[in-house]
Request: fold
Amino acid sequence: MFNKLSREFYERDPITVSIELLGKLLVRRTKEGEIVGRIVETEAYIGPYDKASHAYRNKKTKRNFVQFGERGHAYIFRVYGMHHCFCVVVGQKYIPAVALIRSVEPVKGIELMKISRGVKNDVPVTGLTNGPSKLCQAFGITEELNGIDLCGDDIFISEGDSKPFEVGRSRRIGIDYAEEYKDVLWRFYEENNEFVSKKVKE
DNA sequence: CGACCGATCCTC
DNA sequence: AGGATCGGTCGT
Reply:
């Protein structure tokens, strides 16, 4: 039914993996049911030299230690004291690097997503998962899942269909503090997809 | 040990 | 444009 991505998929160049994650399916299995979204927007963060990365200068902390571990595990962190972001540890082991999943297009479990997001049943589906913290809320992803292996069965990423699409790229969102790294084009998205979180120049 | 602030979202 | 909300991180 699903064709789960292998460990080897994640053990490649972080930029390449971030691009190739577009169009893949994020799958979450809960007791309430299965939730699936098609990944339409990602960002790459490469710890050793990227000033926007939580692991800049290879600094290992209580928050970011998962980035230094096995590839294909989930790095989940809290932002603004109330929201979560979901990343995949990628790249050469054991260099800290991740692909941040910024937006997905709902595929299955839309009713569950609406309940988790706390929105009324008649709201448009476009606002459900178009942002890193929105999709975490929709998928029930919290820091309890930090470090979980995406090669397992509770949450994983699968091959999608092979329909072609155009890849857009831009600066990353919300990292104005990152000096010379705030302008690198490490945000990737599917062109003309209405579930991409926001338009950015360049 | 205290102060600062964010890989965001929502409402005004 | 501004508030919510809190733990990690860093400076003292």
